[in-house]
Amino acid sequence: MKLVNQKACAAFTKMACISAMHDGIFDLPTSKLEDLHLYFHAVERWDLSCLDCLPKHVTFICFYNTLNEMAK
Protein backbone atom coordinates (compact mmCIF):
# COMPACT_ATOMS: atom_id res chain seq x y z
CA MET A 1 0.00 0.00 0.00
CA LYS A 2 2.82 2.38 0.83
CA LEU A 3 4.45 1.93 -2.60
CA VAL A 4 1.16 2.82 -4.31
CA ASN A 5 0.95 6.01 -2.28
CA GLN A 6 4.54 6.90 -3.16
CA LYS A 7 3.88 6.40 -6.89
CA ALA A 8 0.69 8.45 -6.70
CA CYS A 9 2.50 11.23 -4.86
CA ALA A 10 5.32 11.22 -7.41
CA ALA A 11 2.83 11.31 -10.32
CA PHE A 12 0.92 14.18 -8.71
CA THR A 13 4.14 16.13 -8.14
CA LYS A 14 5.24 15.62 -11.75
CA MET A 15 1.86 16.78 -13.07
CA ALA A 16 1.97 19.85 -10.82
CA CYS A 17 5.42 20.69 -12.20
CA ILE A 18 4.19 20.22 -15.77
CA SER A 19 1.25 22.51 -15.06
CA ALA A 20 3.59 25.16 -13.68
CA MET A 21 5.87 24.74 -16.71
CA HIS A 22 2.96 25.22 -19.10
CA ASP A 23 1.79 28.25 -17.16
CA GLY A 24 5.28 29.67 -17.50
CA ILE A 25 5.36 29.06 -21.24
CA PHE A 26 2.11 30.91 -21.76
CA ASP A 27 2.98 33.79 -19.43
CA LEU A 28 6.46 34.59 -20.70
CA PRO A 29 6.73 37.95 -22.43
CA THR A 30 8.77 36.17 -25.09
CA SER A 31 5.93 33.75 -25.91
CA LYS A 32 4.33 34.52 -29.21
CA LEU A 33 1.18 33.03 -30.64
CA GLU A 34 3.25 31.40 -33.39
CA ASP A 35 5.45 29.70 -30.74
CA LEU A 36 2.38 28.35 -28.98
CA HIS A 37 1.01 26.96 -32.25
CA LEU A 38 4.33 25.21 -32.84
CA TYR A 39 4.22 23.79 -29.32
CA PHE A 40 0.66 22.49 -29.72
CA HIS A 41 1.62 20.96 -33.05
CA ALA A 42 4.54 19.14 -31.39
CA VAL A 43 2.25 17.85 -28.62
CA GLU A 44 -0.37 16.68 -31.12
CA ARG A 45 2.25 14.83 -33.20
CA TRP A 46 4.11 13.63 -30.07
CA ASP A 47 7.26 13.69 -32.12
CA LEU A 48 10.72 14.83 -31.08
CA SER A 49 11.54 15.87 -34.65
CA CYS A 50 9.67 19.10 -33.86
CA LEU A 51 12.31 20.17 -31.33
CA ASP A 52 14.30 22.17 -33.87
CA CYS A 53 11.24 24.27 -34.70
CA LEU A 54 10.48 25.25 -31.10
CA PRO A 55 11.97 28.28 -29.36
CA LYS A 56 14.49 27.58 -26.61
CA HIS A 57 12.15 28.66 -23.78
CA VAL A 58 9.60 25.99 -24.75
CA THR A 59 10.62 22.80 -22.98
CA PHE A 60 8.75 20.14 -24.95
CA ILE A 61 11.42 17.51 -24.29
CA CYS A 62 10.83 17.71 -20.53
CA PHE A 63 7.08 17.32 -21.01
CA TYR A 64 7.60 14.48 -23.50
CA ASN A 65 9.99 12.53 -21.28
CA THR A 66 7.96 12.97 -18.11
CA LEU A 67 4.69 11.80 -19.64
CA ASN A 68 6.34 8.85 -21.38
CA GLU A 69 7.96 7.85 -18.07
CA MET A 70 4.63 8.08 -16.25
CA ALA A 71 2.92 5.98 -18.92
CA LYS A 72 5.22 3.00 -18.25
TrEMBL record:
Q: Per its UniProt record, what Pfam families does this chain match?
A: Terpene_synth_C (PF03936)
Q: Which domain of life is it from?
A: Eukaryota
InterPro entries in the cross-refs: Isoprenoid_synthase_dom_sf, Terpene_synthase_metal-bd
Coiled coil (UniProt feature):
none
Q: Gene3D superfamilies this protein is in?
A: Farnesyl Diphosphate Synthase (1.10.600.10)
Q: Which residues form the Terpene synthase metal-binding domain?
A: 11-71
Spell out the molecular function terms from Gene Ontology: magnesium ion binding; terpene synthase activity
Protein known as: Terpene synthase metal-binding domain-containing protein
Organism, as annotated: Amborella trichopoda
Which lineage is the organism of this entry classified under, starting from the top rank?
Eukaryota, Viridiplantae, Streptophyta, Embryophyta, Tracheophyta
